[in-house]
Automatic annotation (TrEMBL):
InterPro entries: Bact_OuterMem_StrucFunc, Gly-zipper_YMGG, OMP_bac, OmpA-like, OmpA-like_sf. This is Membrane protein. It is found in: Cell outer membrane. Keywords: Cell outer membrane, Membrane, Signal. The keyword Signal applies. Residues 1-22 form the signal peptide. Residues 103-220 form the OmpA-like domain. It comes from Roseobacter cerasinus. The lineage of its organism: Bacteria, Pseudomonadati, Pseudomonadota, Alphaproteobacteria, Rhodobacterales. SUPFAM superfamilies: OmpA-like.
C-alpha cells in the first residue's frame, strides 16, 4: 500500500473507532461524546501513522489499521476521562476559573485578580481551597502530568515580569504539592509578558494577560 492511500485508512479506521465509542443514549446537547470522539480521532491518527511506520514487512495497510484502532481506543478513553474531570472541576471551582477542554488536555486559567495581590507572588488565602480542589482532582486522576505556567501583562520591566511569572507559577505549584500532588508530576514555567491572550493596550486586556494556567496532560 502506498503512502498516498494512508488518508483513506485513517478515515475508515477513525470512523470505526468513533462508531464503537458512541453511546446511543448520550447524543443530546448535554452529551460528553464530542470530546471523546475528538480524543479518538487524535489517537486513531497517531496510531495509524505509527502502525504504518513500524510495519517492516511491506504490509503498511495492516499496520496502519491496527494502529488506528488501538490508538483510537486509547484516545477515546483519554477524551472520556478528561470530560469527567472537566465536569467535576467546573462543579468544584470558583466561576472565575475558566476551563478549556481541547480533547487531549485541560487548561485551567486562573486570573491574577483571584490568585495574587498586585506585584505579589503569595497565593491569596481564599484561593487555596480552589487549588486544593484542583489537587484532589489531580490525585483522583493520576495518569497525567501538570504544567503550571505564569503570565504577566507588559507593564514594567520585562525581566521583572519574567521573574514574577516564574515565582507565581512556583507558588501555585507549591500549594498543589502541599495538597499531596507528587512533585514528579509537576512542571513550572514563567512566560513573563511573552504570551498575551489579549491586547496590552487597555486595562481589560492587561487583566486577562495576568494569569496562571494549570495544564493537565494525560499520559495514557
Amino acid at each position: 500500500m502506498t503512502i498516498s492511500k494512508m488518508p483513506l485508512v485513517l478515515a475508515v479506521s477513525g470512523a470505526l473507532v468513533l462508531t464503537a465509542c458512541t453511546d446511543p443514549n448520550q447524543t443530546g446537547a448535554n452529551s460528553n461524546t464530542p470530546k471523546t470522539q475528538q480524543g479518538a480521532l487524535i489517537g486513531a491518527g497517531a496510531g495509524a501513522l505509527l502502525g504504518a511506520l513500524v510495519k517492516g514487512d511491506g504490509k503498511r495497510d495492516d499496520g496502519a489499521l491496527v494502529g488506528a484502532v488501538v490508538g483510537g481506543a486509547i484516545g477515546a478513553g483519554i477524551g472520556y476521562s478528561l470530560d469527567q474531570q472537566e465536569a467535576e472541576l467546573r462543579r468544584d471551582l470558583d466561576s472565575d476559573v475558566t476551563i478549556t477542554n481541547t480533547g487531549d488536555r485541560l487548561i485551567l486559567n486562573l486570573p491574577q485578580s483571584i490568585v495574587f495581590a498586585t506585584n505579589s507572588f503569595a497565593v491569596r488565602p481564599d484561593l487555596r481551597d480552589d487549588l486544593f480542589s484542583v489537587a484532589a482532582s489531580l490525585n483522583k486522576y493520576p495518569q497525567s502530568t501538570v504544567q503550571v505556567i505564569g503570565h504577566t501583562d507588559s507593564d514594567g520591566d520585562a525581566s521583572y515580569n519574567q521573574q514574577l511569572s516564574e515565582r507565581r507559577a512556583t507558588s501555585v505549584a507549591n500549594v498543589l504539592l502541599d495538597a499531596g500532588v507528587p512533585g514528579n508530576r509537576l512542571r513550572t514555567f514563567g512566560r513573563g509578558e511573552s504570551q498575551p491572550i489579549a491586547s496590552n493596550l487597555d486595562a481589560a486586556g492587561k487583566a486577562q494577560n495576568r494569569r496562571v494556567e494549570i495544564v493537565i496532560l494525560p499520559t495514557s
